[in-house]
Structures are given as C-alpha cells and as structure tokens.
Amino acid sequence: MSHSSTNLQFNVQPGGSLHGTVRVPGDKSISHRSIMLGSLAEGTTHVSGFLQGEDCLCTLNAFRSMGVAIDGPTDDGKVTIHGVGLHGLQAPAGDLEMGNSGTSMRLMSGLMSGQAFDVRMTGDASLSKRPMKRVTVPLASMGAVIDATEIGTPPLLVHGGSKLQGIHYDMPVASAQVKSSLLLAGLYAQGETSVIEPAPTRDHTERMLRGFGYAVKTDGNHISLQGGGKLTATDIDVPSDISSAAFFMVGASIAAGSDLTIEHVGMNPTRTGVIDILRLMGANLEILNEREVGGEPVADVRVRAAPLKGIQIPEALVPLAIDEFPALFIAAAFAEGQTVLTGAEELRVKESDRIQVMADGLIACGVDAQPTPDGIIIKPGNFTGGTIDSHGDHRIAMSFAMAALRATQPITINDCANVNTSFPGFVGLAAGAGVRISAA
Ligand SMILES: O=C(O)C1=C[C@@H](OP(=O)(O)O)[C@@H](O)[C@H](O)C1
Ligand SMILES: C=C(OP(=O)(O)O)C(=O)O
To answer: Which residues does the record give as phosphoenolpyruvate binding sites (predicted)?
Structure first.
C-alpha cells in the first residue's frame, strides 16, 4: 500500500545541530530479500531488525497471498517465515500489489517467472512509470513470458508454466535489481545463469543466497549459479540501513557543533560509497565498533560537523551510493566550491527523476543547481529556504528536512507520506536528534 496521494507536509524551522545516538530502521534491500528467500526455503527462518516500511510490507503481503505463513512483524521487527520450498507457492487470489517498490517488482519478476501459475503485479503511480524492460527482456531470453505496457512499464503479467533456461547476460546497466532478478529466475532455470556487471552493485542477493545454503560463484564482476538446488532456512539479523543513516551523516556534517553517533549501520562494501564521497568532501566520519552480524559487516558511525568542499564525484562510486545522492546534493549545497556529478543517469528513473526534482528544490532554496543529462552541477550559494515538492519521493523529502539545519529560512516539504516506504519514524527520530521538524 502506498500513501503517495496523501499530502503529508513537513515543516522544518531553520537552524539546530544533531546530537546523541540514533538507530535508524533496518536495511530495505536485506528485508525484502529475507522475505523472498525465507518463503522459498525449506524450514523456518527467523528475521530480526526487519524494516517495517511500506515497500517491504508489500513483499511480505505478496508472499502471504501466495500461501506462505508469516508471523509478525512484531513491534521490534521480528518476523518468522514458515518456508514452503522453491516449488511450494500457490496462486494468489488477486494481483500482487507492489506499491512504490521497484525492488519488489523487479526481483519478483524473476521469481514469478519460475512458478507454475500466472501472477499480475501492479504498482502505484510512481512505480507504474518505471522501466521494467531491463528485467523483462533478459528474462524473456531465459524463456519467461511477461506482458507489460507497450513502453515496458507495469502492470506486469507474468505467465506461469515456462521452462526456464539459464543464460549468460552482459548487463548494460549497473543494477542490483537486474542482477538479482536474473539470479532468482536462475534458481528455476536449467543449467547455469550468469551475469556480468559493468560495475559492482550491492551484493545482498549473492550473500543471502549463500546464507541459505545455495552456491553462488563470484569471480570479479562475473556472478553465476546453477538451477535446481534448494534453499535451507536460516536466521537473519538485518542491520540498520546505511541509506537511511545517510540523511543523518549529511545533517551532522553540515550543522555546526553536531556530534552524532548512528548505531548498528550496515557497512557492506557495496553500499558504503556515501562514506567515501563524504570523506572526499572533508566530512569527519569515524567508524567504530566494527563487527559482523549475520554475514554482513556492521559498525557505529560517529559524525562531527566539518567544513565540506565541493568535489568531482568519482564515477566508480556512483552505483555504491546510488540511493544517497539526494542527501549528498544537500551536502554539496553547503560545501565550499562546486560539486560535479556525472555517470548517474540512473537517478532519473528512481521514485522520481532525482536529478530534476533535487535541482528544482535546490533552486527554490536559492542554490545554483544545474541538471545535466547524467548528473548535476551544484554551485553552493546562499541557501535560504522555501517550499519543496518532493514528488512523493521519500529520499527527496528526508534530504530537504536535513537541509533546514543550515538554511536561513523555514523549509516546507510537500507530498511526504512516502517517507513511510523506507523510514517509518523519521520525523520523531530526526526531531529527537535536533532537526526542528514537524509533520502536518
Ligand atoms: O537491489 C536492491 O535492493 C536495490 C537496488 C538499487 O536499484 P537499481 O538496481 O535499480 O540500481 C537501489 O536503488 C534500490 O533502492 C534497492
Ligand atoms: C530506488 C529506491 O527503491 P526501489 O527501486 O525499490 O523503489 C530507493 O529506495 O531509493
């Protein structure tokens, strides 16, 4: 379910700084995959730290509607999944509603291609505009039969009963969702399914498949598995989402006097581009108490305010920070000197066109932001404040909420209900740490 039509408004007064210790909700990518793999495993999977955001609840409800018994989530994020095995799903009574979630739609396209029954997957207004050919085209070459609109957007009708054949696919886009969709279809395919990534992307699917006892080979940028195996239930401790932590990293970096510790943050090296980019800009981030939790590296991140400088963002870091650019653009708006981003055209096909929507918001606040086809040029200036249209994009809304820490005027952000897709409790947590935010 998505509330994108509800015009929840954030009102953020200027000034303040961030202090204390916060723990942001569980990782969205890992939470989705815990439900998918737990449902298809043999045995009972216990998940803790599950993200109770609307996106992951769409995935959870989809598997429930296909006959998987799932207990929870409890208030503290515990979910128990009674797996039905790779061939134990049942046809759902109605459509699978994927809400705002690209991850659900794209990963499930692969999984559903291997089932014996037909499934129709729908999305909200934003998801209904997002490109699906990036998965439907390679899945079709594996033998899947998927109907989409003429331009390749949802709803998707995935036909059951296809005999899938493993393929070797040279991915044109660096996308973890495409990689994952093909690997998940590969569980049902004959022979080997292998992908080559043009650049490293988040590797949670590979790590978690291995955690469920499924052999996945990684050889540089080449990832492969053999169809016909089985998944064995396991326990999953979901770390906090570094993509949610990023708002606080930026907020504490830009707001003078801040000293904030963000606990239990997932530090998977395919996700830490935001830390590398902020450090290149001069941020003061200290990584403490590094440990491993359920196969994923985790740490506490202490952030103290520091003067930031504008940089040319290295393109190799783009896929490793793909969801953090709205927050990073705010950091750039308060840096000294211009920041230039290139090689990031993928940002134009997220929940909103994140290049254009961020540029519009920055300009509304008095900053010189120039969108380019594959990035942006941000020349920091006098960040006043103003009214922002988040276009129903959670990450735009949270980024501008943090910007108010350094603005000179209030910031009003419209269309914020979708913050609940990835970060339920954001307003309370941000207010507790020092952002002067209220929601109406
Ligand atoms: O695999 C995943 O869990 C995700 C992959 C990324 O998308 P792309 O694969 O489109 O880059 C990211 O933007 C999204 O929030 C989550
Ligand atoms: C792009 C995102 O998610 P999804 O693709 O799952 O909608 C995101 O959370 O920033």
So the answer is: 28, 102, 130, 177, 354, 395
